[in-house]
Design brief:
Strand content: 5-15%
Shape: globular
Low-confidence stretches: 187-192, 438-449
Helix content: 40-55%
Mean pLDDT: 89
Number of helices: 16
Oligomer: single chain
Bound molecules: zinc ion
Strand order of the largest sheet: 5-6-7-9-8
Structural class: alpha/beta
């Protein structure tokens, strides 16, 4: 029985309640998730937030929804103080370029490209679903400038000597997401608001900063400069998802000012709700402490997953993914090394199960079906938990019940094996860590048809590896999609790419 979108419930920051998804187009979820600023390696807290978006997409697909998923790359305009209302501070990209690690880059563009490539690589390693569109701020300058012009024309923005500002008093319901409504509250939450004598209201924030000395600058009707960080997400979300879409996700640190400002920019132009559902992931700590470089607990997947002989920790991406999704997104999460080791143990149990099932399946598909019911119940309970506000601890426990049921079964019949493999594929599709692909290419039959398929797949994989090495991500994604259409699923790891047939 297909599940209804109404039964997929998520906490909505806008209303403060857990609510069913309400889709503009029944059966089609359109969502935007704020991506990283590419001035450094993304850390595990960033990835925990990206994983929330990933799990929303996976759950939506599991109940039969079509999804359009957009997640951006911020490569311009994000200042060090941008967690305050109207930011001052240094440009994050410039600061990174001038740091010790930045010395190897010839310019800020090369730095942005490097961290974007690493981000995409980590994204694939951690088995996050590739967004349908991954727009970059620097490639949407025209749209951003046009939006500022419209805001000026409609009286929602004004120009000063230094900048174009959004006029907060021009939008009566400003503050509805964060509750930061008036100047006094703002002052309490904001340490440093840009001092510009010409600003009409302290809450006003910059849409465009005039700066002909900036490392990344564009020509605009107001001279050389660059856009404010908040603008890009409003503009790109509306460009790819329409004026009004279903769901917007991000880390809880983005509620104010970033998401509040996104709403202000969009809704003052369209007079429609920008996004109906706002989903925010709570923060992450490491071993009970705030992650910081000086504490030595600043963990980035790029280093955790790199092989030991390349200076990394050699952590299995599937284990890291499992550890990161095992905390409920609505609660602050304490990430520990013990937890990571435990997750690696659980991943091994899934892999052993897959191996056993593949061996048993080699003997045919006959025999008694001892496990069908337990595995169906496990998957159903796991999916139900995900539909209940992405309750991952409960979903993972339900999945583990399936593992236990198989482990208790001494001898797997052919029918059992088929059930187990089918169940593993479904669990993997929903939660993304049950990497069951290991060595499946060898077990794929030996008929000539299978042989021809294997040859085609291998050669496409080689071409994709080459495309990735040459950073031709578009071609690499195309090949993945081609293989997907052939019913082939890829799994990337440090050892290379393996494949399996989708069940
Ligand atoms: Zn954003």
């Amino acid at each position: 029985m297909p599940k209804q979108e109404k039964s997929f419930r998520l906490f909505n920051t806008l209303t403060g309640k857990v609510e069913p998804l309400q889709l503009n187009d029944p059966g089609h979820l359109r969502m935007y998730s704020c991506g990283p600023t590419v001035y450094a390696f993304a850390h595990i807290g960033n990835f925990r937030t990206f994983l929330t978006a990933d799990l929303i997409v996976r759950t939506a697909r599991a109940i039969g929804l079509k999804t359009t998923y957009v997640s951006n790359i911020t490569d311009v305009g994000h200042l060090t103080e941008d967690d305050m209302a109207d930011a001052g501070g240094e440009d994050r990209m410039k600061k990174a370029l001038l740091s010790a690690e930045g010395q190897r880059f010839p310019n800020v563009w090369a730095l942005a490209d490097f961290y974007t490539d690493v981000l995409r690589e980590n994204w694939h390693q951690l088995n996050l679903i590739e967004p349908d569109v991954r727009p970059r701020a620097s490639q949407h300058m025209r749209e951003q400038i046009l939006t500022i012009e419209k805001l000026l024309d409609t009286g929602h923005a004004y120009e000063t000597e230094n900048a174009i500002y959004f006029s907060v008093p021009s939008l009566p319901d400003y503050g509805k997401l964060s509750g930061n409504v008036n100047e006094d509250q703002l002052e309490a939450g904001v340490r440093d608001v840009v001092i510009d004598e010409e600003k009409r209201d302290r809450r006003d924030f910059a849409l465009w900063k005039k700066d002909d000395k900036h490392l990344m600058q564009w020509y605009s009707p107001w001279g050389w400069g660059f856009p404010g960080w908040h603008l890009e997400c409003s503009v790109m979300a509306m460009q790819y998802l329409g004026d009004s879409f279903d769901l917007h996700a991000g880390g809880e640190d983005l509620i104010f000012p970033h998401h509040e400002c996104e709403i202000a920019q969009a809704e003052s132009l369209t007079h429609k709700p920008f996004a109906k559902h706002w989903v925010h992931t709570r923060f992450l700590q490491v071993e009970g402490k705030k992650m910081s470089k000086s504490e030595g607990n600043y963990l980035v997947p790029e280093r955790l997953m790199a092989p030991v002989d390349e200076g990394g920790e050699g952590i299995d991406p599937a284990a890291l993914r499992l550890a990161l999704i095992s905390g409920y997104y609505r609660k602050p999460y304490n990430f520990t090394m013990k937890h990571l080791r435990d997750s690696a143990g659980i991943v091994s149990r899934y892999r052993r199960l897959a191996e056993r099932a593949r061996e048993a399946a080699d003997g045919g598909t006959n025999g008694a079906d001892q496990l069908g019911r337990a595995l169906d119940e496990s998957y159903e309970a796991s999916l139900e938990a995900m539909m209940d506000n992405l309750n991952t601890p409960k979903a993972l426990a339900a999945a583990l019940d399936g593992v236990k049921a198989v482990e208790k079964t001494k001898s797997l019949s052919g029918a059992d094996a088929t059930r187990v493999l089918d169940w593993l594929t479904k669990i993997d599709r929903l939660l993304g860590f049950a990497d069951v692909s290991t060595a499946t290419s060898e077990t794929d039959g030996d008929s000539s048809e299978d042989g021809a398929l294997a040859e085609t797949v291998e050669s496409l994989i080689q071409e994709r590896t080459a495309a990735r090495a040459g950073k031709n991500w578009a071609r690499a994604d195309e090949i993945r999609a081609e293989l997907d259409a052939m019913g082939v699923e890829l799994q990337d790891s440090a050892e290379g790419t393996t494949w399996k047939r989708k069940m």
